[in-house]
Write a structure and sequence with these properties.
With 134 residues, the protein is α+β, with helices and mostly antiparallel strands. The chain has a single domain (2-119), classed as Hotdog Thioesterase (Thiol Ester Dehydrase, Chain A). The chain is 22% helix and 37% strand. It has helices at 21-38, 120-130; strands at residues 2-6, 49-60, 70-79, 83-92, 97-109. It has a five-stranded antiparallel sheet with strand order 1-3-4-5-2. The two termini are 13 Å apart.
């Protein structure tokens, strides 16, 4: 599992005094990209054979305030033939879960605009990082 601390910015806070729900997507993106940098980025050719998000769902459980210290945990839970499924949580330093998120990536060949099988080296890199068979 991957964990990264997120800096809350003043502009993230809405009139109700908490992080606006739309901002959580940015926090999750930061963590997803860091996860990919630690696993499969060395294999991805972003302008040739890449991955794209095809599904996201978020559950907003608790508000996040400007003084909270928050982290995003990221874990790949499944590698399919042409997809990668990931779970994320935004948590505070006390372990309170603020947001639960699930997303699915699909592989994408930019030239053909079609998916392709998840390469074995991508799967191995993710499994090595997660220290489990997927």
């Amino acid at each position: 599992m991957h964990k990264i601390q997120i800096q809350i910015r003043f502009s993230d806070i809405d009139r109700l005094g908490h992080v606006n729900n739309s901002i959580y997507s940015q926090y999750l993106d930061v963590a997803r990209l860091d996860y990919l940098k630690n696993t499969i980025e060395k294999f991805i050719k972003w302008n040739e054979k890449t991955i794209v998000i095809v599904h996201i769902e978020n559950d907003f459980l608790l508000p996040t305030l400007i003084d909270d210290t928050i982290f995003v945990t990221t874990e790949v839970v499944k590698t399919g033939n042409r997809s990668i499924s990931m779970n994320q949580q935004i948590i505070d330093d006390k372990g309170n879960i603020k947001v639960k998120s699930h997303c699915i990536f699909s592989t994408l060949d930019i030239q053909s605009n079609k998916s392709f099988p998840v390469p074995a080296e991508w799967k191995k890199s993710i499994e090595d990082f997660e220290n489990k068979k997927l």
